[in-house]
Design goal:
Layout lengths: L15 H24 L4 H19 L10 H24 L1 H6 L5 H21 L2 H15 L24 H9 L8 H23 L1 H13 L5 H17 L2 H19 L3 H14 L10 H9 L3 H29 L13 H8 L3 H12 L4 H26 L4 H46 L1 H12 L4 H18 L2 H19 L4 H11 L11 H10 L3 H11 L2 H11 L2 H4 L3 H23 L8 H15 L3 H25 L5 H5 L1
Helix pairs in contact: 1-2, 1-8, 1-18, 2-3, 2-8, 2-18, 3-5, 5-6, 5-7, 5-18, 6-18, 8-11, 8-17, 8-18, 8-23, 9-11, 9-15, 10-11, 10-12, 10-14, 11-12, 11-23, 12-14, 12-23, 12-24, 14-25, 14-27, 16-17, 17-18, 18-20, 18-23, 19-20, 19-21, 20-21, 21-22, 22-25, 23-24, 27-28, 27-29, 28-29
Length: 664
């Protein structure tokens, strides 16, 4: 279990007036986001810069210059005051000057320098809110943009391999790319943070302050408390159903994660672990039929295979993916010593529902609106309104039942207003880290687009494979990761399949449907693979954990995303069909291989695995991928023997039943 003693250093108390300013700005940001989500949608060059301006001001107020564990001091206020003013200018510049910027051919000198200032404050804000690693990544990509004969740092070109060389870009060109268009800081990652990520973080804050969070925790305990890792397993199942409908892994994280991540933390999963599990499960929603995040329709158009056939062949791989995540969640629960609670220690389902059934209404509304096809941002807006309405109705019912008085009514209204303001502030605070991470991710995206790095990687990796299918798939995976930094999953899939699809089908003889499925699956990896893992960032915002640490956890739990496409390639029967015994054998070794891989990764299945056993499982798993029946049989036998030995060790390690065991 995570305890309070594991928290590093307590932050130094902020002066009262600073806390008031933070509260006012946080409430203003949340109200602005609610207005844009449900009243009057704004253009991207209004919403994203204004959102960033608010976030920068909050960031420099919440995270002092010399660390949260030290008083700010005069020098700190001089630094932070300057940065706060710079943040305001960065947020206001594009919206105020949008007409001039849109109608000019070349940027004005002042636009360039405001852009430079914006880049600097974003990198510094990320250092404070996210960590030094994210800032180094952003600075590294900026250096790459300058590394060319015509760039600001031409000497760096000598350090780059020939294919990665480019002409180099000036400060003026880079500044324009980063801050005067939709391919830099104000690009897709910040757009994600400024729309439905924020609105669902705010939804989670309303759940927390109204008591809905406690209701769902109690309900989950009542339903799954006797199982190890019950809420985490519920998150996996819920994300499988919701992800296909939502069309976005990030939207899936912020919808289901608002409920499941707090439950996992309550159970004992570390915050980063909880956010990572939800991100991995939500990413799987994009490969889950029937909609597959709109991918099934695109695939049908490209391959001329009927939509129904694509849905049918995608079911088994999707089940394999979620089964792997489910198993990893179970192993983590067992390793961390999580136990099922006794019935006496669990709340009764009937009593929990009687006390808080009204909190189910926002969840019903949320699911219904998603199914009806509303955008995640609008869904989040109505979900917040529904939880306010449900909490207000419950308060009025309690007030009426307790004998209404004028004083009681005034007290009820004051409490309602206080909780609303608290939720608005909390939502804004919780969004700072993920928004700063996404702003730096925008720098990465901008450099990739400016230098053509993504396309270079795609072409280069196919050429470098040298006719080796395994190496080609690894290179495609890396290319998808680079492209995924700058493109949504659907766009990354389209670009990548156009670039590498002909090579996979013509050079390597891969069936066209499998080639498309492999590329589509690999196009999901940027959601869960550091350094730009937007689903991981969204999970971190809800879990209150570090974005990079959460992304690493998501990457670990989503390993099926990388392995299952290999089964499609080397055992095409699971997709293309064939003789029944062959299909059954291919499906069986796929299940066996993923279970063995999960056990080797965690070092645990029924009991702790010694290192020699984990190492011995690896060649067994590799053998299952080998396109040779004899090798597959040998690998399967090896894995079965090792897992049976682990099961036998677990039986031998069980203490005999006796008075002490019973008492325990």
């Amino acid at each position: 279990m995570v305890t309070d003693t594991e928290v590093p250093t307590e932050p130094a108390p902020q002066p009262a007036f600073v806390l008031r300013v933070i509260a006012v700005i946080g409430i203003a940001l949340s109200l602005f986001q609610l207005y844009a989500a449900g009243v009057q949608p704004l253009g991207l060059f209004f919403q994203r810069p204004i959102h960033l301006g608010f976030i920068l001001v909050l960031c420099f107020l919440i995270y002092p210059a010399f660390g949260r564990d030290r008083p700010r001091g005069v020098l700190g206020w001089i630094i932070d005051g300057t940065l706060i003013c710079a943040g305001i200018v960065a947020g206001a510049w594009v919206p105020v000057n949008i007409d001039t910027i849109a109608n000019q051919i070349f940027p004005r000198t002042i636009d360039v320098w405001i852009g430079v200032m914006t880049i600097v404050v974003v990198l510094e804000g990320a250092r404070r809110a996210v960590g030094l690693g994210m800032t180094i990544i952003g600075a590294g990509f900026i250096a790459y943009a300058f590394a060319g004969r015509r760039g600001e740092l031409p000497f760096l070109a000598d350090w780059l391999p020939g294919i990665l060389n480019h002409r180099g870009y000036s400060l003026e060109r880079l500044s324009s790319q980063m801050t005067l268009g939709a391919e830099g800081i104000f690009g897709i990652p910040l757009g994600v943070a400024a729309t439905f990520v924020f609105i669902f973080v705010l939804f989670g804050a309303f759940l927390e302050v109204t008591g809905a969070g406690k209701f769902f925790i109690d309900l989950a305990y009542a339903a799954t408390g006797r199982q190890r890792g019950g809420p985490a397993k519920a998150a996996v199942i819920a994300s499988a159903g919701m992800g296909s409908i939502s069309g976005s892994a990030i939207a899936n994280v912020v919808t289901t994660g608002a409920f499941t991540i707090p439950l996992m933390k309550k159970l004992g999963y570390r915050p980063a672990q909880a956010g990572g599990i939800e991100a991995a499960a939500s990413t799987g929603g994009q490969i889950m039929p029937p909609l597959m995040g709109a991918g099934a329709f695109l695939m049908s158009e490209f391959t001329r295979v009927s939509y129904v056939d694509i849905v049918l062949v995608s079911i088994f791989p999707a089940v394999l993916y979620f089964g792997t995540v489910y198993l990893l969640v179970h192993i983590a629960a067992v390793k961390q010593g999580m136990k099922g609670l006794s019935v006496a220690d669990l709340p009764r389902t009937r009593e929990v529902l009687a006390e808080g059934w009204h909190f189910l209404l926002p969840l019903v509304a949320l699911i219904a609106l998603l199914v009806a096809g509303y955008s995640p941002m609008r869904v989040g807006f109505y979900a917040i309104l529904s939880i306010i309405a449900a909490a207000s109705a419950r308060a009025l019912w309690t007030f009426a039942a307790s004998g209404p008085t004028t004083a009681g009514f005034i007290a009820m209204c004051r409490k309602g207003l206080s909780l609303t303001l608290e939720a608005l502030e909390l939502g804004a605070r919780n969004a700072v880290a993920v928004s700063m991470a996404c702003a730096v991710a925008g720098i990465v995206v901008g450099v990739v687009g400016l230098t053509g790095l993504g396309l270079k990687f795609s072409a280069m990796m196919i050429a470098f494979s040298g006719g080796n299918i395994v190496l080609a798939l690894i290179l495609v995976l890396l290319a998808s990761l680079i492209l995924g930094m700058g493109l949504p999953v659907t766009a990354a899939y389209i670009v990548l399949i156009i670039l590498v699809g002909p090579a996979l089908t013509e050079q390597f003889g891969m069936p066209i449907l499998i080639a498309h499925l492999v590329v589509f699956w690999y196009s999901q990896d940027s959601n869960v693979t550091p350094p730009v893992a937007l689903a991981g960032f969204a999970g971190a915002a809800i879990a209150g954990s570090k974005p990079m640490e959460t992304s690493v956890q998501a990457w670990k739990y989503a390993k099926g995303l990388y392995l299952i496409p290999l089964f499609m390639v080397f055992n095409p029967e699971i997709i293309m069909g064939g003789e029944v015994p062959v299909v059954i054998w291919s499906g069986a070794i796929a299940v066996l291989g993923l279970a063995a891989f999960a056990a080797a990764l965690e070092g645990y299945l029924w009991a702790p695995m010694p290192m020699w056993m984990r190492v011995a499982l690896v060649p067994g798993v590799v053998a299952l991928f080998w396109p040779n029946f004899t090798v597959e049989v040998v690998g399967a036998v090896l894995i079965v023997i090792l897992l049976a030995l682990n099961w036998w060790q677990a039986r031998g390690a069980q203490p005999p039943a006796g008075p002490e065991t019973s008492a325990a």
